[in-house]
TrEMBL record:
Annotated protein name in UniProt: Putative regulatory protein FmdB zinc ribbon domain-containing protein
Pfam families: Zn_ribbon_8 (PF09723)
Phylogenetic classification of the source organism: Bacteria, Pseudomonadati, Nitrospirota, Thermodesulfovibrionia, Thermodesulfovibrionales
InterPro entries in alphabetical order: Regulatory_FmdB_Zinc_ribbon
Domain Putative regulatory protein FmdB zinc ribbon: 1-44
Gene3D superfamilies on file: RNA polymerase ii, chain L
Amino acid sequence: MPAYDYKCDKCGETFSLIMSISEKETKKVKCPKCKSVKVKPVYSGFFAVTSKKS
């Protein structure tokens, strides 16, 4: 399952949540520090491990 990064608009806390893609679409994300629902996704890079050599 992918990990999603969020930042709280209220307290500034940055946190990660591991959830399925379907959960991401339906789940209300809350800040673990202040319990606010005013959070925004933080976009970052990712990498993939494959068996092919490039």
